[in-house]
């Protein structure tokens, strides 16, 4: 048995059967053939281990970035699953390829990006993703899925639903823009304000990336200093009728419209309003600047974090009648 601590950003120390790095598609296939029900891990930045397990872990370390085709306007890129997402963003910006700048500084690897359709600051992976290359865990055969088949939506995909634990993602194809066809997106208020403060009127993709990095660094704890897995819960999506009723009791309740019938509520606001921000229970706590982020001040046991998350869910449910759903993936 071996500790998972170096492989998860929550820095819990549960034991697993084995930890094996896979650096090619072929290695993934041969390891899959040898192991019984392995856990697949990228950078471990969106998981919470809650118990010891005999299951072995395969860490996806396949590298490579290839330009598949180029037109005047765009470029199609294949990125291997083991590339660090932010390193890829930096590579794209250095090559003046646009589309991923708003997704700067998201931890983890490219292979995990379609799992929950990573998103930030007004952009989701679904806007760029063309294809996901996989290995079927049962047959060991290579296959691929187009964007539509992946059923990407807010923090969700078919890989968390019908295809859960059925495929290992080995690479993704993304369509990025070339200058002057970039689609600069500064719709997120914080970005617009920061660019204004910097007197930047016509931002480049690098300006947007720098702004996103500055905003994220001011709000979100760096997991290498304070272990965490980013947002612990998803922002709940509720019917507009429920929102309107709640608004009578809580006039300041914020919301973002999704459609005429539904809206998204910031879970961080709900948790904050329940008084959780900065609270510690033993060696786990709620981040002082972002109530949606649970932080580990020293526990080795993921159950302590799970316990805190359940207390938070209960208090939000009691006060607002809203059930918070975890964004983090629990293992085992
Ligand atoms: P892991 O945590 O290793 O795995 C996540 C899940 O995907 C697990 O279920 C795992 O089994 C599965 N998986 C991983 N790789 C593969 C593969 N190759 N094939 C099949 N299954 C696989 N997310 C956002 O969307 N937006 C944000 O703004 C954001 N900010 C964050 C900020 C911080 C400080 C942190 C710590 C996290 C943040 N996250 C954010 C969450 C996280 O970074 C993303 O979900 C990221 O894509 C996870 O990548 P990973 O490689 O660490 O995945
Ligand atoms: N808020 C509070 N108190 C808090 C935290 C937030 O009142 O403690 C309020 C803010 O004032 C703001 C609103 O909630 O009005 C939204 O906050 P923020 O802009 O920080 O974004 P978020 O909804 O908390 C989401 C994503 C993040 C992503 C950011 C930026 C989810 C679950 N989280 O956070 O993704 O980086 O928007 O786009 O959708 C992640 O998934 O791990 C993650 C960090």
List the helices and strands and how they pair.
Elements: E1 2-3, E2 15-16, E3 19-22, H1 25-34, E4 39-41, E5 47-49, E6 57-60, E7 65-70, E8 74-80, H2 85-94, E9 97-98, E10 119-120, E11 123-124, E12 129-136, E13 142-146, E14 167-178, H3 189-197, H4 205-219, E15 228-231, E16 237-239, H5 240-249, E17 256-257, E18 262-264, H6 267-273, E19 280-281, E20 284-286, E21 293-296, H7 302-320, E22 329-331
Parallel strand pairs: 3-6, 4-6, 5-22
Antiparallel strand pairs: 1-2, 7-8, 8-14, 9-14, 10-11, 12-13, 12-14, 15-21, 16-18, 17-18, 19-20, 20-21
Helix pairs in contact: 3-4
Q: What general form does the structure show?
A: globular
The mean pLDDT is 97
Beta-strand content = 25-35%
Helix residue percentage = 10-25%
Rg over C-alpha atoms, rounded to the nearest angstrom: 20 Å
Bound heterogens, unique: flavin-adenine dinucleotide, uridine-diphosphate-2(N-acetylglucosaminyl) butyric acid
Main beta-sheet strand count, sense and barrel state:
6 strands, antiparallel
What is the distance, rounded to the nearest whole angstrom, between the alpha carbons of the first and last residues?
15 Å
Structural class: alpha+beta
Number of helices: 7
Uncertain regions spanning at least 5 consecutive residues: none
Q: How many E strands? A: 22
Oligomer: single chain
SSE run: EEEHEEEEEHEEEEEEHHEEHEEHEEEHE
Structure, described:
- The chain has helices at residues 25-34, 85-94, 189-197, 205-219, 240-249, 267-273, 302-320, and strands at 2-3, 15-16, 19-22, 39-41, 47-49, 57-60, 65-70, 74-80, 97-98, 119-120, 123-124, 129-136, 142-146, 167-178, 228-231, 237-239, 256-257, 262-264, 280-281, 284-286, 293-296, 329-331.
- It has 7 helices and 22 strands.
- Strand 17 and strand 18 form a beta hairpin.
- The chain is globular, with a radius of gyration of 20 Å.
- The longest helix is centred in the C-terminal third of the chain and has 19 residues, at 302-320.
- The chain is α+β, with helices and mostly antiparallel strands.
- The model has no long low-confidence stretch (mean pLDDT 97).
- The two termini are 15 Å apart.
């Amino acid at each position: 048995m071996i500790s998972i601590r170096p492989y998860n950003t929550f820095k819990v120390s549960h034991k697993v059967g084995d930890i094996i790095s896979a650096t090619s598609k072929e290695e993934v296939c041969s390891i899959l053939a040898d192991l019984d029900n392995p856990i697949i891990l990228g950078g471990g930045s969106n998981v919470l281990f809650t118990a010891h397990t005999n299951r072995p872990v395969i860490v996806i370390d396949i590298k490579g970035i290839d330009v598949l085709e180029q037109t005047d306007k765009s470029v199609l890129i294949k990125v291997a699953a083991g590339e660090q997402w932010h390193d890829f963003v930096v590579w794209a910006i250095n090559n003046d390829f646009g589309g991923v700048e708003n997704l700067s500084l998201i931890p983890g690897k490219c292979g995990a990006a379609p799992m929950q359709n990573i998103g930030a600051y007004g952009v989701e992976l679904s806007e760029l993703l063309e294809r996901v290359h996989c290995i079927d865990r049962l047959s060991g055969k290579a296959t691929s899925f187009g964007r539509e088949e992946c059923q990407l939506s807010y923090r969700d995909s078919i890989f968390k639903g019908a295809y859960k634990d059925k495929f290992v993602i080995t690479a993704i194809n993304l369509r990025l823009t070339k200058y002057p066809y970039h689609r600069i997106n500064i719709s997120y208020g914080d970005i617009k304000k920061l660019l204004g403060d910097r007197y930047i009127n016509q931002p480049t993709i690098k300006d947007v990336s720098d702004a996103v990095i500055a905003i994220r660094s001011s709000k979100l704890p760096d997991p290498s200093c304070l272990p965490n897995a980013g947002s612990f819960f998803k922002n709940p999506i509720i019917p507009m009728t429920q929102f309107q009723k709640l608004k009578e009791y809580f006039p300041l309740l914020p919301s973002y419209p999704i459609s005429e019938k539904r809206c998204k509520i910031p879970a961080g606001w709900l948790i904050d309003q329940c008084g959780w921000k900065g609270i510690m229970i033993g060696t786990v706590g709620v981040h002082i600047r972002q109530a949606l982020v649970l932080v580990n001040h020293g526990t080795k046991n993921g159950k302590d974090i799970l316990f805190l998350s359940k207390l938070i869910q209960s208090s939000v449910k009691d006060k607002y009648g809203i059930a918070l759903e975890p964004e983090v993936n629990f293992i085992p």
